[in-house]
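worker-03 picked up job from queue 'complexes'. Input manifest follows; two sequence lines, order preserved.
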Amino acid sequence: AQTVTQSQPEMSVQEAETVTLSCTYDTSESDYYLFWYKQPPSRQMILVIRQEAYKQQNATENRFSVNFQKAAKSFSLKISDSQLGDAAMYFCAYYSNYGGSQGNLIFGKGTKLSVKP
Amino acid sequence: DSGVTQTPKHLITATGQRVTLRCSPRSGDLSVYWYQQSLDQGLQFLIQYYNGEERAKGNILERFSAQQFPDLHSELNLSSLELGDSALYFCASNRGDTDTQYFGPGTRLTVL
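worker-03 finished. Artifact:
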């Protein structure tokens, strides 16, 4: 079965600095997608960034970028120029149309990010 | 705003009761997913519907059931509620042929 692991329950960053959140996953599939979702105190789940496994190029969205290492099954999120509004719970998620998880997202346990002014 | 709506926002009920959570997907989306977020279990997939038909089932208890109606809105029915059913229930949607799921604001269920 596919699993997603986030080994950092909590992280802290100074405003304007850069922080990297880690995520590893386990799958036997070759075709899949990876996501980072942000959950602020409002509890809304907000899509931050999406990576297609067959694309070697790392996805970027403004201040958010990923380091996707397919062989190592690693998918980290880098937040540059951190802002107070980035404080939230961040979830790494896996999706595939194949295998036991067909059609649904598998989430890690989350990393709580605090941003210090 | 993701375009996915969920009602009610909050629900407080007693053990043994039955509740219905409602979800309206984004315009044009045929697929609806239900997830449960609890402190001990994290975010777990419950069930997926596509154009009115059940497509995939996750860790959904037998006391829970769902359906998707012709207008594509979906309802999640929770019965014989237990304290452990207290959680945030999310609905997500997509066209069904894409991977990205868009989440609603969630319904917070408290069972007393």
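worker-03 released lock.
Chain B has no helices and eleven strands.
Chain B has a mean pLDDT of 94.
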